[in-house]
Amino acid sequence: MAEQIHDKGYKQLLSHKENFLDLIRYHVPEAWADEIDADALKLGNTRFVTKDFLGREADILYSAKICGQDVDFCVLLELQSSPDFTMPFRLLEYMMGVMSESFSNTSPDIRESEPFRLPAIVPIVLYNGEYRWNCVRRFREYFAGHQRFASCLIDFEYILIDVNRLDDEELLRVSTVVSYAMYLDKVIDLGELKRRLRTVADRSAGMTEDKREHLRRWIHNVVSKKVPDAYMDEIGKTCGEGGLTEMTYAIERVIEKALAESELKGKLAAAAAMIEYGDPIEKVSLVTGISGDALKKHIEPKN
């Protein structure tokens, strides 16, 4: 459930074209990234039906213009712990859907003329897994024997944005909604999440209210993914408290509670083991820092 919420969080975030433009301009190292016509950028239909009648849906699809030339950006969100080795073929299916739709929607007189060209399609994969992405990036390498037939094979190379390999300092320097979102989305423990939430709340103070609202929603998503299920009801309540700063402080209190309870569980487990081996309560209390009364309350004495 948390993964589905998180998936929707990225879709919601990148469905705002200003956030999508920031993703491209700051995290895609291509010369054309700064040449996108922001006024012509449009969010498109992501669903296509292939010849086998199976529905295919990309996560984000934008149509744009670069120096007057049509281009489509096909984005897949790979929000799981490990890479998907079928990614090249998945991208091909989505790209074929975009091309088929463009071709079918063009009148025969135009598409059968010599000047006709399909719009460029730029495939992008946004991946937030813990493990390094080690899938084939160039489609022709997905073919057996591609070295021999390289010039004859279908080929494209997709852009990979690997969240957990992005530099923290650079994400903070960029200071966009998307860069802060990815900074918070990295694989981190609760203590580090608490520190990063405060950093983002402080550094985003100068953003517009609209952008801070985007961040507020994102923080709800990322916290829902990283905080233990037992605290989800409290997180749901705190995420409705005021603006970004107020919500962040409320979440910090929940995280502090979760960390304290986790620490207590660890100490009680160690205390139970010591008592099992015959150590006296006084020694166990001294080692764990838990009072004798608390130990007697939480640990059942052995007969």
Task: Provide the descriptors you would attach to this structure in a database record.
single chain; 303 residues; alpha/beta; five-stranded mixed beta sheet; two-stranded antiparallel ribbon; 12% strand; disordered N terminus
Report on this structure:
There is one protein chain. This protein is of the alpha/beta class. The protein has two domains: 1-165; 169-303, no CATH class. It contains 13 helices and seven strands. The strands form two sheets. The protein has a five-stranded mixed β-sheet. A two-stranded antiparallel sheet has the order 2-3. The longest helix is centred in the last third of the chain and has 33 residues, at 244-276. It starts with a helix and ends in a 5-residue tail after the last helix. Residues 1-6 and 49-57 have low confidence and may be disordered.
What topology emerges from the helices and strands here?
Elements: H1 2-14, H2 17-27, E1 42-43, E2 47-49, E3 55-57, E4 60-66, E5 69-78, H3 87-104, H4 108-111, E6 120-127, H5 146-149, E7 159-162, H6 168-174, H7 177-185, H8 190-203, H9 209-226, H10 232-238, H11 244-276, H12 281-288, H13 292-298
Parallel strand pairs: 5-6, 6-7
Antiparallel strand pairs: 1-4, 2-3, 4-5
Helix pairs in contact: 1-9, 6-7, 7-9, 8-11, 9-11, 11-12
